[in-house]
Every structure is written in structure tokens, then in C-alpha cells.
């Protein structure tokens, strides 16, 4: 059995102090996450998925999210880029990307998960259904923000029957840290908050 990793929205606009929508203290998890990703082993990790919050200015301007948050993560702009390099992951581990237009990576129908190394794409639900039928023992979720995008990523995994681990040292929240989110939202669920995966 092995793990699958989801790296949630580690983009400049969320992580850099001068980003459009910075998560407090998020810069402090960049170096540890880079080292952690580089240390993943092919015998223990089946794949890594990087999610991208992705907005187009004209569409975002009339969205519900725009009522709450300023423009951020405009596709192709510097704030949209990752601050961790998927290329640091061992090449023997499959790496994937998912662009999403809302906080919740599960909310939009028909999204596709694409291979970062150009090996095709798979519809999101089919991708995760395939993981569940395979030899995935747990999904490890890291990134920002613990009380928004990370929260909904975890909740979708719980709904799909996965066991989830969230390393507290590799996530940051806007108003609530991950241990508080877990206590308030996932009591009784198969979710572990770990110091490090």
C-alpha cells in the first residue's frame, strides 16, 4: 500500500507576504515543504497532485468569491505560479495538476487532472475512483489555506472514502489552524493531524 499527496494552492498570491491574498505565516512552510517533496520515495508515494486556484479577471469580477476576496491567482500571472517546484519530486513518482476556479476542488463538474509530465489527463472523479480501487492507503494533504481550500479538499476525500493525513507543519490557515478545523469539522472522521508526514 502507498500514499497519494495533494499539495493545495501553494501559489505566490497566497504564500508570499506581498501576494494578493496572503495567508499569515505561509512563507514559513515553503522551505520545509520543498524538502519534504524532494524526499518523497517512489516505494511509498504513488503520485502527487498540485492544485492551482485559477481565475480569469472578467469571470472572477462577477463571481461570488469576488464579493469576499480581492482578485488573485490570475491565470498566467506571477501570483498564479507555484512557490514549490513539482520538478523536485522524484521523477519515478507521477505528478499531476488540477486548475480550479473556486475554493472547493470538488465543486466544479467536469474538471480534468493533467499530468505535469505530459502523460495525458483524466476526469477528476474517474481519477480519484481509480485511486480508491488501487493500492492507495492514505491521502496526505498539505498547503493553504487550512480553513478554506485544504478543508474542502479533505472533506471531499472523506466523502469518497479515503483515509486522510494532514501534516500540521505543512499547512497554514487564514482564521483557524488545521487542528482547530479538524476538531470542529471532522470529529469522528478518518483524518489524522500529524506533525510531519
CATH topology: Rossmann fold
Q: What overall form do the CA principal axes indicate?
A: globular
Which parts are unreliable, with pLDDT below 50 for 5 consecutive residues or more?
A: none
* Helix residue percentage: 10-25%
- Arithmetic mean of pLDDT: 94
Distance between the termini: 15 Å
Taken together, the total number of domains comes to 1
Key attributes of the depicted protein:
single chain; Rossmann fold; 197 residues; 25% strand; 9-stranded mixed sheet; alpha/beta
Quick structural overview:
Helices cover 24% and strands 25% of the residues.
Overall description:
This protein is an alpha/beta fold and 197 residues long. The chain has a single domain, classed as Isochorismatase-like (Rossmann fold), CATH 3.40.50.850. Helices cover 24% and strands 25% of the residues. Strands 1, 2, 3, 4, 5, 6, 7, 8 and 9 form a nine-stranded mixed beta sheet that branches. Strand 2, helix 3 (57-61) and strand 3 form a beta-alpha-beta unit. The longest helix has 11 residues, at 149-159. The mean pLDDT is 94.
Amino acid at each position: 500500500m502507498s500514499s497519494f499527496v495533494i499539495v493545495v494552492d501553494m501559489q505566490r498570491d497566497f504564500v508570499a507576504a506581498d501576494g494578493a491574498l496572503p495567508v499569515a505565516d505561509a512563507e514559513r512552510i515553503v522551505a520545509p515543504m520543498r524538502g519534504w517533496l524532494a524526499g518523497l520515495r517512489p516505494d511509498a508515494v504513488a503520485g502527487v497532485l498540485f492544485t492551482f486556484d485559477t481565475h480569469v479577471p472578467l469571470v472572477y469580477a462577477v463571481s461570488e468569491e469576488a464579493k469576499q476576496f480581492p482578485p488573485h491567482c490570475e491565470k498566467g500571472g506571477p501570483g498564479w505560479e507555484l512557490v514549490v517546484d513539482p520538478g523536485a519530486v522524484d521523477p519515478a513518482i507521477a505528478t499531476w495538476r488540477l486548475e480550479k476556479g473556486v475554493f472547493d476542488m470538488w465543486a466544479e463538474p467536469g474538471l480534468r487532472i493533467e499530468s505535469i509530465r505530459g502523460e495525458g489527463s483524466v476526469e477528476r472523479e474517474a481519477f480519484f475512483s481509480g485511486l480508491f480501487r488501487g493500492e492507495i492507503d492514505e491521502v496526505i494533504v498539505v498547503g493553504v489555506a487550512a480553513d478554506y481550500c485544504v478543508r474542502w479538499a479533505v472533506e471531499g476525500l472523506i466523502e469518497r472514502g479515503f483515509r486522510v493525513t494532514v501534516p500540521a507543519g505543512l499547512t497554514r490557515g487564514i482564521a483557524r489552524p488545521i487542528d482547530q478545523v479538524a476538531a470542529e469539522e471532522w470529529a469522528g472522521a478518518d483524518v489524522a493531524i500529524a506533525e510531519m508526514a
